[in-house]
Amino acid sequence: MEDVTTTVPFSSLRKDLKVGDEVCILSGDHKGVMGWVVNQDEDYVCIFNDRTGTEIEVSPGIVQFFTSPFVFGTESSELKAPFTDAQKRVMKGDSNSHLVGKQVLVTKGDFRGYRGRIKSTVGEKRVLVELEPPRPRELLTDFTYPLEPAPPPSTLAGFLFPGYPFPDPQPSVPYPAAFLVQTPAIAGPSTPFPNSEDISMTPAWNPSSQTPCRGDDAPSPYWLRDNCFANMRLSLRLINTNPNFHRGKHKDKCGEFKGVVGDAVKVQLGFRILEVPFPYLIPERPECKSQVVTVFTGPHKGSQFRIKEFGEDFCGCSILKSTMLLRKVDVKIATNQLVVTAQDSRR
User: What is one process in the GO biological process aspect for this record (predicted)?
Assistant: First the structure.
């Protein structure tokens, strides 16, 4: 019986299909469709086509086991085309990303001389810089190179020459003679003094005369007593503090308004809060556009704006809380009626 061959009708045979078998449909409307068996019965088999994501029910008699052949040495046609410049830039990444987190000094433009820290890069030649006090901590995106690494503020170099390295006072290796600058002796003043009888008529020539400080014409800020300025981060500058207030230690320093106590104003200088009498304070005036300011007198008293057009006499201002995408000049206000204000980051 081992070598006996028997012929039986094809209709009496049934494929032993199981869930998970990979099969191919041989005929019918779905001829050539390949997929996996996901369900079966005596009269039908359910096949899932992964290309269309659909399930097809056909008779088991028109289904044949199928195995995808292995294909070696394939090469994607998409990789044959050369990379475009845009694709190369994406793969290369941002060449200025190493600057993020660096402390820098602005060397040109309206904010020349101010320190800040790079928050992110914007394109090839722009960076997003966060300014440090006394300037309000606002993000400004209009800085361009050159930016120079700045020394720590606590060092002597940072105090005398902001943004530039200070030479070693006792170098181990003497400087070459080519780098030693010879200072010529000064025989006398380059500009002669006028006649003695003319000095009283021209006080600018008098060495003992004092040049007026910026903002000396501003009134003492007694308007801070008004409740409309409560909780506003107004910038105030200390003047004429020598010798009656801390022996002039805080002269010309700029601090932040914290409140009024009796006849004094609470001002934060760094990590300290001082109570400063009104006569030693003036409002810090704006110097350029994009600054946030508060009006301390006039019909707009207590309102906050952002400067769109700066002028020595008048500033074109837009409402700070405006929801318009493109800000416009809403009102023109006298510059001597404005005080610089730090914008609250929680707003």
Answer: translation
